[in-house]
Design goal:
single chain, alpha+beta
Length: 156
């Protein structure tokens, strides 16, 4: 193991959490062929949501962008579990699906999800560039402001 990704995370001051267990009847990730589909991750840190409420109302754009970054950290933790602990097995971040808890007048969903997209590019460089969706939702589980799912490609 070369641990390039782990080294980059360490340089960035990011310590990955233990991959969270599911809270309902689903699995945290599914591997199909060389793709890893990671279930939606909430902005949890140390067992607590870092941002709740509707963005633009109870939560600020900056707080929600930080929450999206935390979702990305949690997605990477799940991907690490899927890779047997070796993040260097990830050959590409394929796609993100970002959900933003927002009211009817909020239109900066893309800016919120950039918190995750930017982190993936920082961590994985060109391999972190991905397709993506950023959509609004009237509510999310546990009142979270953001939820993000991802698809990763593994080395063949």
């Amino acid at each position: 193991m070369s641990n390039q990704i782990e080294s980059r995370l360490k340089q960035m001051g990011i310590e990955l959490p233990v991959a969270a267990a599911p809270v309902a009847n689903y699995v945290p990730f599914v591997i199909s062929g060389n793709l890893v589909f990671v279930s939606g991750q909430l902005p949890m840190a140390s067992g607590k949501l870092v941002c709740t409420g509707q963005v633009g109302n109870e939560a600020s754009l900056d707080d929600a962008k930080g929450a999206a970054r935390q979702c990305a950290i949690n997605l990477i933790a799940q991907a690490k579990a899927a890779c047997g602990g070796d993040l260097d097995k990830i050959s590409r971040v394929i796609k993100l699906g970002g959900f933003v808890n927002s009211g009817g007048g909020f239109t900066d969903h893309a800016q919120v999800i950039n918190g995750a997209s930017d982190l993936f590019v920082e961590v994985f460089a060109d391999k972190g560039k991905h397709a993506r969706a950023a959509v609004g939702s009237s509510s999310l589980p546990f009142g979270a402001s953001v939820e993000i799912e991802a698809v990763f490609e593994l080395e063949s």
